[in-house]
């Protein structure tokens, strides 16, 4: 069975598939909300099987599957194609890792040569109030604080991803960070005009919002500041969404302990392949 590119006519079935696991599928849900099913929108959304889709594959800056089993894997390998434009593959580890290997077997070094594979990334979620008091200094970042927030975002990205987001110029990443601030999705602690803690809502759809970009000034780490700060961000997110979620590298044990103390529980596991 083959896959096909979905259109706005397929929105009901696509949203039904997203709703089966709103935490795991929050990113693709957010892309549907942003209009990916409309002609001319950035990226495409494939559905498999073509006649009555049971699985989805987002193809854009990254490849992100919406799947319940591995049945769609061969069709999605063909849909991805030889010419890779995506910078990563992200999603449930049980699917992403064999999907990546199959892409390499089918299309060669365009997919098999990678910068890094993060095979185990716990997916954490919380639907109740944080278990610890929130830092009252956490609040939305304002436009006047953008430059300090942007500097913190660059530091976070470089540390987390292992690459400079400004290597090809700062226009794209700066615009994205500006959008986060303008949309009220950027939160932080600002002291003396400097952002010392930041976190963002990277994707939101339906009942879930995914937190990303968590960063604390390295000079302040180890002082017990992260947990109350994360509790503060979580309170803001839960004021608008029933579930706050995130995913984290398994080797970042300090961050995992922080999130668990705030009240996050593991609900799944992602893998990320970085090209």
Task: Classify the secondary structure makeup into a structural class.
Answer: alpha+beta
Strand order of the largest sheet: 1-2-3-4-5-12-6-11-10-9-8-7
Overall pLDDT confidence = 96
- Tell the overall outline: globular
Catalogue the unreliable spans: none
- Compute the CA-based radius of gyration: 19 Å
| Order of SSEs | EHHEEEHEHHEEHHEEEHEHE
Largest sheet: 12 strands, mixed
- Output the number of helix runs: 9
| Terminal residue distance | 29 Å
What share of residues is helical?
25-40%
Tell me the fraction of residues in β-strands, as a range: 25-35%
How many E-type strands? 12
Question: What report would you give on this structure?
Answer:
With 275 residues, the protein is α+β, with helices and mostly antiparallel strands. Helices cover 35% and strands 28% of the residues. The protein has 9 helices and 12 strands. Strands 1-2-3-4-5-12-6-11-10-9-8-7 form a 12-stranded mixed sheet, sandwiched between helices. A hairpin with a 2-residue loop joins strand 3 and strand 4. Helix 6 crosses helix 7. The longest helix is centred in the middle third of the chain and has 16 residues. It is globular, with a radius of gyration of 19 Å. The two termini are 29 Å apart. The model has no long low-confidence stretch (mean pLDDT 96).
């Amino acid at each position: 069975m083959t896959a096909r590119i979905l259109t706005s006519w397929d929105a009901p079935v696509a949203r039904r598939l997203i709703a089966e696991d709103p935490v795991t599928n929050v990113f693709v849900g957010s892309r549907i909300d942003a209009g990916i099913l409309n002609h001319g929108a950035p990226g495409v959304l494939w559905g498999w099987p073509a006649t009555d889709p049971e699985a989805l594959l987002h193809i854009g800056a990254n490849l992100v599957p919406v799947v319940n089993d591995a049945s769609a894997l061969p069709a999605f390998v063909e849909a991805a194609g030889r010419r890779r434009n995506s910078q990563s593959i992200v999603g449930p580890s049980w699917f992403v890792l064999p999907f990546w290997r199959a892409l390499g077997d089918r299309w060669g070094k365009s997919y098999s040569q990678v910068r890094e594979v993060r095979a185990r990334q716990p997916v954490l979620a919380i639907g109740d109030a944080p278990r610890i008091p929130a830092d009252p200094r956490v609040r939305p970042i304002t436009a006047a604080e953008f430059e300090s927030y942007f500097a913190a975002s660059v530091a976070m990205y470089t540390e987390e991803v292992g690459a400079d987001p400004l290597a090809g110029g700062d226009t794209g990443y700066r615009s994205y960070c500006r959008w986060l601030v303008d949309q009220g999705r950027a939160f932080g602690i600002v002291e003396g005009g400097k952002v010392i803690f930041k976190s963002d809502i990277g994707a939101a759809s339906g009942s879930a919002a995914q937190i990303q970009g968590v960063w604390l000034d390295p000079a302040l780490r180890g002082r017990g500041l992260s947990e109350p700060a994360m509790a503060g961000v979580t309170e803001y997110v839960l004021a608008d969404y029933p579930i706050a979620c995130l995913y984290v590298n398994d080797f970042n044990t300090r961050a995992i302990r922080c999130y668990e103390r705030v009240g996050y529980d593991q609900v799944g596991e992602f893998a990320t392949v970085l090209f």
